[in-house]
Design brief:
The complex is a heterodimer of chains A (533) and B (528). Helix content of chain A is 70%, strand content 2%. Chain A has a three-stranded antiparallel sheet, with no helix packed on it. Chain A has a two-stranded antiparallel sheet with strand order 1-2. In chain A, a hairpin with a 2-residue loop joins strand 3 and strand 4. The relative contact order of chain A is 0.11. Chain B has 23 helices and two strands. In chain B, a hairpin with a 4-residue loop joins strand 1 and strand 2. A two-stranded antiparallel ribbon of chain B has the order 1-2. Chain B has 528 residues and is mainly alpha-helical. Chain B has a domain of 223 residues. In chain B, 73% of the residues lie in helices and 3% in strands. The chains are: A mainly alpha (533), B mainly alpha (528). Chains A and B meet through helix 18, helix 19 and helix 21 of A and helix 5, helix 6 and helix 7 of B.
Amino acid sequence: MAQLLTLVQPAKEALPAINYSAIMPVLIVLGAACIGVLFEAFLPRHQRWGWQVGLTLVAIAAAGVALATYVTDAPAEGEVTLASALAVDRPALFLWGTLLALSVGAVLLIADRSVEPGGALVANAAIRPGTVQDREQRLGATPHRTEAVRFQMQTEVFPLMLFSLGGMMIFCAANDLLTMFIALEVLSLPLYLMAGLARRRRLLSQEAAVKYFLLGAFASAFFLYGLALLYGYAGSVRLSDISNAAAGTDRSDTLLFGGFGLLVVGLLFKGSVGPFHTWTPDVYQGAPTPVTAFMAACTKVAAFGGILRVLAVGFESTNWEWRGVLWAIAVISMVIGAVLGLTQTDIKRMIAYSSIAHAGFLLIGAVVLTPDGLSSTLFYLLTYGFTTLATFGVISLVRDADGEATHLSQWAGLAKRSPLVAAVFAFLLLALAGLPLTSGFIGKFVVFSAAFAEGMEVLVVIALVASAVAAFFYLRVIVLMYFSEPATDGPTVTVPGAFTTAAITLGVLVTLLLGIAPAFALDWANAGNFALR
Amino acid sequence: MTSSSGSVLLVLLLLVPVAGALVVAFLRDNARLAKQTALLFSLGEFVLAMLAWFAYEPGAEARLQLHFSVDWIPAFGVHLSFGVDGIALVMIAIIALLVPLLIGASWVDKLPEGRSAGGFLALILVEQALTIGVFAATDVFVFYVLFELMLVPMYFLIGSYGGARRQYAAVKFFLYSFLGGLIMLASAIGCYVMAAEELGQGTFDWPTLVQVVSDAPLTNQIWLFLGFFLAFAVKAPLVPLHTWLPDAAAESPIVVTVLLVGILDKVGTFGFLRYLLPMFPDASKTLTPLVLVLAVAGVLYGALLATGQRDMKRFIAYVSIAHFGFIALGIFAFSSQSQVGSVSYMVNHSIATGMLILVIGMVIARGGSTQIADYGGMFAVTPLLGGMLLLAGLTTLSLPGTNSFISEFLVLIGSYPREPVYTILATIGMIMAALYVLWFYQRVMHGPVRGNALLGAMSGPGAVADPETATGRRALPDLDGREKAVLIPLVVLIIGIGFYPKPVLDVITPSVEKTMESVQLSDPVEGN
C-alpha cells in the first residue's frame, strides 16, 4: 500500500530532474500538435490546409534537428529522465529518428491534393455515407453548396497525426509500463479516427475505424490487465524493477507469466503479429491510403520498439520460460501472412498480409535478445518502414472513376501504360520479397544471422521458406503488371503532384540506398544498448 | 601472382556488359542501332575475356587470380571480391563467346507486340554481367547476392518475351530458384556464424570460410551442405528438382533458352565444385551416394523423356537434364579425371547444346512451330541446315571427334574405378543418347517433305509442296549469311576441341587438382 501511495503521489519536496534537451523532440511534436488544434479553432477554413501542412512539416523538421543536436553529445549508455518515466537511450534515439523520417513521408502523402482532388481525406467527417453531401464532396458537384465545400479536407488529421507520432515516440522510450500504456492510447486514439476519414468508400472506411477501435480497446484492456498483474508481482511498474524482481525471488510465477502474456498480447496486437492480426487487412483496406501508409510504417516501428524494450529490459532474465511461446507466435505470423496473402485479390489487403509476415520476421529479431538481435531488428524496422511507405504511395496513384483501383485484376498491363510507376512498384515488391540490392534483403539477412547465431536455425529456415512463399504473391503482381494484356477499361495512373512524388522518391531512394550501402545505418542501429535503469 | 592490370581486366569484364545494357536501354526507339550497340559491347566483352584467358597462369601457385577486393559491409565482413580459377575462367570465356552469337541469332527475331529489341538486349547484357559475377565471386555473400539477382533479368526475359504459357513458366522458374537460394542463404549464414565463433570476427571470404568450415564436425557439415546442395540441385537441375526447366526452356525465346541451359544452369554444377566439395569435404564424401543416385536417375530419366518428347524445346530441356546428370556424376566420383571431365563437359555442353538449340531455333524460325510432328524431310530443301543439325546432334551424343566426346569419356573412365555400378548405369544413358538424337534428326530432316508447318511455310496449307519448285525453295530458304556467321564459330570449336582439347584441359586441370586436395582424396588409379 505504501508503495502504491508513493506511486500515486510523488514526493512533493523534490521535483524530478528533467533533461529537456533529451526529450525535446517529443515536446516539439506534441507542442505542435496542440498548436494545430488551435489552428483548427481559429483559422478560417480555406487557410487551414496550408498552415497545418506547414506547421506539421516544420515541427517534424525541428524535432529532427533537436534529435540530431542531442545525439551528437548524448551519453552512449543512455539517459533516464522524467522520474525515470522515459529512457532516452540509443535504440530510442534510433527509433525516434526513424519515426520522424517516416512521418515526413506520411505527411506528404496525407497532404497531397493532386492525386485526388482535395486529397484522399473526407471534407467533413460528419458527412454520412450515401447522402447528397457525400456525393458532393466526392465528385465536386456543388449544385447547392458554395465553392468552399468542394474539395476540402478534414484538416484535423494533421494535429491528430502529430499526437499519434508523439505517442509513438514516447512508446518507444517508455521506461515503465504505465507510461507505455498512456503512450499506447495517445498513439492509438488518433489512428482510430484517421482510419475513418476516407473520402471515398466511406462505409468501408468507417467500418475499418470501428473495427480497429473495438479490437484496439480489447488489446489495451489486455495490456492494462497484464500491467496490473505485473505490478502485483513486482510491486513496481518499472521495467527494470520487474526484471530485478524476476531475477531471484520466490514470488508467484503465475502473476509474472500471466501478466507477461497479457501484456505481450496487447503489444503484438499493435504490431499486427498473427494470430492477433485480424484487424490488419480490414483496416489497411478501409483506411485512406496515406493514413494506411502512416499506420503501416510508423505503428510497426513504434510497436516493435516497445516489444524490444519490454522483452530486453523487463523480461530478459526469464527468457527461457517464454521464448518458446514467442517462437511459435513468430512462426504462426509468418505462415498466416505468407499463406493467406496468396489468396488475396485486393492489393491493399495483400500488403496487409505481407505486413503480418514481416511482423513474424521482426518478432524473430526481437526474441534474439542479443545486441546483434536488437540492432538488426532496428535496422529491419527502418528498411521496412520506408519500403511500405512508398508502396502505399504508389498504390494511391492507380485510379479509375471510383477512386483507387485496388483490385488486382485492374493492375493488368500497367507496365505498358506507365512503365515508370510499374518499375518503381516492381522494385518495391522485390524489396518486400527480400531480393538482394534492396534494403529488404539486408534487413532479412541481419535479422536471420543474429537469430542463427543464437541457435534458432530451425526458425530461420522456416522464415526463409515463408519468404519464398510470400514471394509468390509479390511476383503475381509483377506478372500482372508486366506480362498481362491491359484491360480495356483499366485504371489510369495519376501523375502525382510534388508531395506524393517526394514521398515515393524518399521511400524508393532509402530502399535502394540501404540495399547497396547499408553500413552507415547498421552502425547507427548498433550504437548502443537499452538503458537498463 | 595477381597483377593490378589483371584486376582491372576482371572489373572491366563485370562492368562492360552493365554499361552496354544502360546504353542499349536508352536506344529502345531505334531497334537497329540498339542491336548494333549491343553486339559491339558483347564483342568488346569477348576481347576482354580472351585477354583474361591469356593473363591467367594455369600453373601458378595462387588458385584465385586477377583478384580484387573492396569493402562492402564491414560490419559483416562482406567484401566485393572477385577472382578466377581455371574452372571459373572457362565458364566466363564461354559466356563471353556465346552472348555475341546470341545477339546475332536473335537479330531478326520478331518480338511480341509492344516489346522493344533494346529492352531485350539490355536484359541479356545484364544477365551476362551477373553470370560472370557469379562465376568470379570469391565472397560467399556476393555470390549469393548475384545468384539471386541473376533471376530477375531471366524472369523478365521469359515473362516478357516468351511463349503462350510464359507467365506460368517465369514464376515457376523464379520461385524454384528463389527458394533454393534462400535455403542456401541459411547455410551461408551458418558458415558465417561458424567463422565468427572460430575467428572472433565473421567473414564471408571464400578461402577463409573453406578453412574454417571444412574442419567442422560432420553433422554441422551435413546440414550446411544440404542448404547449398538444394540451391545448386535446383539450378543444375537434378531430378527431382528439375520440373521448372522444361517449362522455362519451352516458353523462352530461343536465345534465352541458350542462356538458360547453356550458362545459368552451369552455376549449379560450378557450385558443386567451388562450394560443396572444398567447404564440406566430409559431408560431400558422406552424402556421395545421395548425389550419385540423383545424378544417374537424371541421366536415365532425362534420356527416357527426351526420347518421348513431341516439342523440340522440351526435348532440349530433357537432353540437358541427362547431361547434367553426367556432370554431377563426374564431380562426385572424386577422381581428377572425372572432375576434369565434368568441368570440360560444362564448357562443351554449352557449346554443343548451344549449337543444338540455335539450329533448332533456325528450324523453328522457318516452320513457325515447335512440334516435331510438324516437320519432316527438311534436308531435301535445306541441306546446309540439315547438316548443322546433324553436327549439333552428333556432338550432343558425344561422337568421337566432337568436343563432348572427350568430356564424356573422361567422366566415365574417371568414375569407373570408384563407382562402377553408377558408371555402368550412366553408360546406358549414353546409348540412349544415340537413340533420341538420331531419331529426332531423322524425323525432322529425312523422308519425304511433310508436316503441317513445313508444308504451310512452303506453299500454304493443303497445297502440294514440291521442294523442286522455285517458290518452295524461296519460302524455305537455307542458311543465310547471318546464320552461318553465328554457327561457324561453334562448328570450329566443336571440331577443334574435339581433336585438340589440350588448351581447355590445361586451364582446368590445376584448379581441379586443388579441389581434389581440399577433399583430401587421392585418385583411385594413378594415371599420368
